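Sample log: Lysophospholipase L1-like esterase.
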Amino acid sequence: MPLSSTPSFALHRSAAPLVMIIGDSFTVGSGPVGGWDSYAAQAARAMGWQLVTAGASGTGFVNPGSVGRTFETSFDKELSWRPPPSLLIISGGHNDREVSPGTVHQAVERLLELVGRRWPRTRVVVIGPIWMAKAPEWSYQVRDAIAVAAEEAKTPFLDPLGRSWGSGATLSDGVHPTYEGHTKIAQWLVGGLRKYGFGPSA
């Protein structure tokens, strides 16, 4: 077939901002709540964003989980080779139990440095660990380590720890959000992002 007769395909660039997020089971979806209904997806729809989700259940800044990769590895393997987004959200810490706060701090610091080198113009927001029920004491130490690393990198930090998400927000496992719980987290996230100036035109 002559080259001139091959079909041509036009690529159309969407005006919607590209946003990426790295996270754990809260972010990628779990149980009866799929990734398309997660708080990240719901927030993206509310903000009019294109969303690319990375990460996996059980993972954290330090904990590689059963899939064998931390957030840094997920960034490297799933996101870093893509065109830079307008915004990168890094959300987690729930799975970084039995890890010293210093180790968590170093992991967050290293990831933020890596993102900054790879995508110097991309804005970044860090979200601390999410707990639907009462959070254990160690989670506050993890939260603080993440918050300090974000502050040192001059990166906005959103803290969901200690919030009450209300009845009907938690699955029977006592850990993960229901669809309603994801909706409440999405509403909280959208409000927090808008306070930092992130909106439909970010």
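Observation: The chain has one domain: 18-195.
Observation: Residues 84 and 119 are 6 Å apart (CA to CA).
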